[in-house]
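Each record in this resource describes a single protein on a pair of labelled lines. With that in mind, the following record should read easily:

===
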Amino acid sequence: MNELVKITLAIAHKDYTQYSAEDLEGALREKLIELNGGSEKMSLSAVKAFRAHPELYAYVEELIIAISAEALSGSDFYAQMVDQRNIAAGDEPIFHVRKGARYVVANCARGTQGIRRQRIEQDTDVVLSPEPHAVKVYDELVRILAGKTSAAQMVADISKAIARAMLNDVFAAWNSLTSTELGAAFAPAAGTYDEEALMNLAEMVSAANDGAEVYFVTTMAGARAINASDDSQRGNEDVYNYGYRRKWNGIDVAVVPQRFQEGTTTFMFNDKVINILPKIDEKPIKQVIQGEAFTNIHNPEDNADLSTDVVTITAWATGFVTGAQYGKYTLS
């Protein structure tokens, strides 16, 4: 890894074992100014800056590769649900489904609302091919060269943008599952809350996965909507401390934080859906990152004002690939 990238990540991770924060920030900014031809100011044109000082963007490319690999390390949902492969690190973008193959929700198509679906057979290899995603970094470089932002803030801003895009793909794959993929018996039509019906569905998911223990994944509102007939003191304490009962008739309940759909104030997750998952080693959502990046001049026809941007391109793919059986209980 580039030494400059190592310094940047050390600052972002607050790793000050050898040098102070001020020393690292100063050394980084000094080196970036050197890569920018000795100037604290970027060219007013992103294209001119890229052409004049490609080394500066080479640093950005390697930084984005590193950030992409760890962008979602702090997400509990991601850690629990997503199996990530990094091609540049030697991983294969191939996922083998050994038995009971039921469905795959293929790579989320960039720029479209649809999800490409594909049935898979038993003992099948599924390959996810990374698709390009563009990251604009010109403004971040302008600020850090001028001393108006820190390396830690620059990494945080870029990481947040990449993490948001990756999570949107993960949640799109997760939300796309319907009775077509799950099977009508495992995704019954919406109805009023019925404790026996929910328990029956949980038992079906367990039986379909060789008796594996199951748990529920839903939103806070969804967790509050399912009430077990056993009104225990511990359950009431859970509601007081956490806002919902963390167990339902002995079954663990996990809450996923709500998110807005991109550019809207509409929630991404349906509060009426209780997802039933088996406790098995397999992570149902698969993500492949290319582990490489390159910088390119963005086509001005892609911008409404015909302006020209310089973007750094990295690539990843997200899919729902599993041989396990899941359930979806929907409240009306």
About this structure: The first strand starts at residue 82 and ends at 86. The two ends are 53 Å apart (CA to CA). The mean pLDDT is 82. Residues 230 and 249 are 7 Å apart (CA to CA).
